[in-house]
Amino acid sequence: MSRRAAWILSPIALVLVAAGIALAVLQPWQSAAEAADKGDDGPVTALAELTTLTSDLRLNGSLSYGASIPLPGRGGTITRLPKAGDVIGVGQAVYEVDGRPVIAVRGERPFWRDLGADMEDGPDVRQLEQALADLGFGTDLTVDDEFTKVTTASIKAWQKSLGLPQTGVVALGDIVAITAASVRVEAVKAKLGDPASSSPLTYTSTGLRVIAKLTDAQAREILPGTPVTVILPDGTEVPSTITAVDVGGQPTEKEGETTPPTATVDFTDPAAGQGIGLRAVKVVFATSEVKDALVVPVTALVATTDGGYAVDVLRKKGKVERVAVEVGLIADSRVQIVGGDLAEGDAVVVAQ
């Protein structure tokens, strides 16, 4: 078993063993035969079977649209706002200031100056030119740090498509950089008539994902790319993948507190989870697997006086025989039998 499996399985095994044995050993030294002698209807049994036994790690998670990002403010007065939940794509107006739309373009850095002819070269020019190209206004445009006549012509063509004055200049505040091709308005913090200097809203990604809580040890062991299964509140199982692990430890707004370790889980089907709200879910890792394992219910285990375990086997003519066994992997309320006089198809007595 790998080191990763070891730290995951140990607490699970202990819990399952405790749960099972607590039922099986309420009267550990009384055999099923003795119970039958007292006039019981007879023992309840289950068949020992060969199967694939898988041990899972289950984590608590919640549906999320990801990190909340504030939209930068600008000068002027807010004259139109979107609603929470609206999806806004690049090339569309996010909100309106002084009667003019503030257009979303894709980029990682905020714009900090007017963009027009004779300006100094810079990465903001490259970001603008890439945005123009993405919107279909990049004919003959070379995406670089230099503002050229072709850049001016591309801006005018873009302004014409929006019904704006064709100045060839993008003034500070006319556009705002967002981090994806489209974003979802999370919360609107401003109201009509407010100064636009403060952030008017926060946004997130448009795709649902799961944020799962981790321990410090799990954050060190779990790797991006690990396949998992997300169990939705209605029991639907959705194939998913760990896409990022955050070890936490970053300061929060509360003094002395830090962010917890978490894993980000993306659905294989982006539509999974839509329409059910930001609900709690389970994230399941298959951590260990044994093929052709001889298994019985964990409630069939009986503690013995020497500190080991046994099972009561119903033999021919109703005779019950206590058989000492060695146990292996424990998962899903079942236990692997790795030693002892027990075979597939044997009927073992289970605690009632």
Give a description of the structure.
There is one protein chain. This protein is an alpha+beta fold. It folds into 3 domains: 3-56 and 288-349, conserved putative lor/sdh protein from methanococcus maripaludis s2 fold (Beta Barrel); 59-66 and 208-287, Efflux pump adaptor protein, beta barrel domain (Elongation Factor Tu (Ef-tu), domain 3, Beta Barrel), CATH 2.40.30; 69-204, PGBD-like superfamily/PGBD (Muramoyl-pentapeptide Carboxypeptidase, domain 1, Orthogonal Bundle), CATH 1.10.101. The chain is built from 5 helices and 20 strands. The strands form 3 sheets. It has a 6-stranded antiparallel barrel. Strands 3-10-9-5 form a 4-stranded antiparallel beta sheet, with no helix packed on it. A hairpin with a 5-residue loop joins β16 and β17 (309-314). The chain is elongated, with a radius of gyration of 32 Å. The model is unreliable at 1-33 and 35-39 (pLDDT under 50).
Descriptive tags:
352 residues, alpha+beta, conserved putative lor/sdh protein from methanococcus maripaludis s2 fold, Elongation Factor Tu (Ef-tu), domain 3, Muramoyl-pentapeptide Carboxypeptidase, domain 1, 5 helices, 17% helix
Brief account:
This protein has helices at residues 3-24, 32-37, 123-134, 149-162, 216-221; strands at residues 45-47, 49-64, 69-70, 78-80, 87-89, 93-97, 100-106, 175-178, 182-188, 201-204, 209-213, 227-231, 237-246, 262-267, 280-297, 302-303, 309-314, 320-331, 334-339, 347-349. With 352 residues, it is an alpha+beta fold.
